[in-house]
Specification:
By secondary structure, this protein is α/β, with parallel strands linked by helices. It has twelve helices and twelve strands. The structure holds guanosine-5'-diphosphate and magnesium ion (MG).
Amino acid sequence: MSTPSPVQPMIESGRPERYRLVVGSAAEAVEALRDRFGTRGRVVSVQQVGGSGFGWLLKKPRLEVVVEIGSGKKTPVADPETWPKPVRSPSPASDPVPTGSGNGAAEAVLRALGLDRVMIERIRVDLGDQWTSLSKAEIVTRTGGWLRDQGRSRPSTPMGNRRVFIGGCGAGKTTALCKLLAREVFVEGRSAAVLKLDAGQPNASDGLAAFCEVLGVPLFRSPVETEEIDDETILYLDLPGTTPGDPSDVTVCENLDRLGIDSRILVVNAAYDGDLIAEALTTGDQFGATHVVYTHLDELRRWGKLWPFVLHRRVEPLFFSSGPNLAGDMEDDPVSCLLNQTFTERRADGGGTSPES
Ligand SMILES: Nc1nc2c(ncn2[C@@H]2O[C@H](COP(=O)(O)OP(=O)(O)O)[C@@H](O)[C@H]2O)c(=O)[nH]1
Ligand SMILES: [Mg+2]
């Protein structure tokens, strides 16, 4: 049992005296009142109080009980049935969700988590009848479970040994390449090589060249140089940025086929607007993208917006990349990371909630 908040006298003119206490349950209130006032107290008001923002999702509802001492009337404090009915707070965790689709309070909560309308509708359809009978907190919990199951039900696409990073200019392709390269070479002890192609466009390589040197990884400039590479060596291909609809994309695809590049890793700046992310995924499809890396997670404010993309069936999220440090942060389990960020990380509005694990 939680400890009731100290009984606080309410400053009121004249008698009887009023006291206010905040407790976790009616039973707690009875015990506290009996201890403090015996049978002298009369309960005049009981209100359910909750936090603001997302705080209410984490906390049990609390009761604020106002007790009057010294009035002529006697209402036994020991019988909560006789207490005035609690005034319902605007958003207690136990509130049922309004019936019907679309604009319920649960939808508002899921929107606040960053989920978009289409995603909420998918969840609503999958929850079926439960949607109307569950409390908001339960909806949030079920949503977390639903997202987790969807994210983990994806069949994994194994990575081949010939890998290209494709995407728009400045998306973070070379940075992502370096992060994966460093891990494969340093942590997993793999043998690797990098082929950097310009395809007639600027593709600065100073940082890449220095990084390869540090790692002891050869950096090639021409496909011919890669012919001697054995099958165990991972070949990373660094390309300049692609532009959606560019006719030269066809040539790029043909070259990827010719080089036997089986893993095509799309690189997308996650801080971009959802429409641009969707467009990038469409472009990735044109290149036969098998995996996707989301970058600039350090600049992302609304993590929830990534769910439709992370659940995208055709490409497997490979990792989240946070920050420009070439040997820096990469998150290998995007679904877990996204669940954590969506539901449990500290939020600007003061809290979060945990889905069932
Ligand atoms: N803040 C931040 N900057 C990044 C991230 N990834 C790359 N950058 C920076 O974005 C710029 C472009 O990155 P680069 O890897 O060269 O992009 P590319 O043109 O797609 O190869 C560089 O200044 C990087 O340091 C990231 O996750 N977060
Ligand atoms: Mg680059």
